[in-house]
Amino acid sequence: MKILVPVKRVIDPDIPVRIDLEGKNIVSANQPHALNSFDEVALAKAAMMRADNVASEMIAVSIGGEKTTDTLRTALAMGADRAIHIVTNENQTLQPFDIAGILAHIFRKEQVDLVLLGKLSVDSDAGQTPSLLAGFLNLPLLPDSFKIDIEGEHVIASFDHSNGQTRARAALPAIVSCELHLVEPRPVSLSAVMKARQKPIVAKTLEELPIVLKKNVSIIKLKEPISRPACQFFDSALELAVQLRTEGLLK
């Protein structure tokens, strides 16, 4: 079984973000970046399946500028056998529709059996790529999975929904998006980092792919979130009622 794991390089979520002067993009230059945490979980799960001989090959793929190579090296150190880098301009931002189209092309070319990917990226928080990819390929999608098992030619996943938990079964090939609590990624050892330098990364430009970017979504304006007022504490329900009445929230 061949597993494809799409990964994304994102601005480190632990630092405050800034909006550029035009108000259309997040300032990413000279900012620390990291591997998207949901994709890291997908990598860790695929690496476990690879180590247990459930999978015969694990391929990482990422779309981005030259520095995306660092993210792919991390994926290789975590257990990927090889990596594919779709090179874009550093300032080029692709929408989920185009990303899913690129991944669909790679899926067909590589004849993949299973795609494991994070349910969303922590920068855009869109969460659209898994479902779009499944739609383009006409394949089953097991979303937001916190448990994944392979039984013969089927994948079985568990995920939450409004009424509790669901366990679903789908025939391979399939798309599975991963929750954060699927597995706990292990720290990458120095020896794994050294070995990753010997593993191949194949770079391709967008022009080399039979993909026509739609560019049907554009950002009009980004704004800082409205700051919340400071919390107030009350010693009694009567004191709360008086305050609500003073603010006109209680008649």
Notes on the structure:
This protein has six helices and eleven strands. With 251 residues, the protein is an alpha/beta fold. The strands form two sheets. Strands 9-8-7-10-6-1-4-5-11 form a nine-stranded mixed beta sheet, with helices on both faces. Strand 4 (57-64), helix 2 and strand 5 (82-87) form a beta-alpha-beta unit. Helix 3 crosses helix 4. The protein is globular. The mean pLDDT is 90.
The SSE order reads EEEHEHEHEHEEEEHEH
Quote the average pLDDT. Answer: 90
- Rough outline: globular
Radius of gyration: 21 Å
Q: N- to C-terminal separation? A: 66 Å
Number of strands: 11
Summarize the structure.
This protein has helices spanning 37-51, 68-77, 96-110, 129-137, 190-196, 237-246; strands at 2-7, 9-11, 33-35, 57-64, 82-87, 114-118, 141-151, 154-161, 164-171, 174-178, 201-205.
Which keywords apply here?
single chain, 251 residues, alpha/beta, Rossmann fold, nine-stranded mixed beta sheet, two-stranded antiparallel sheet, 6 helices, 26% helix
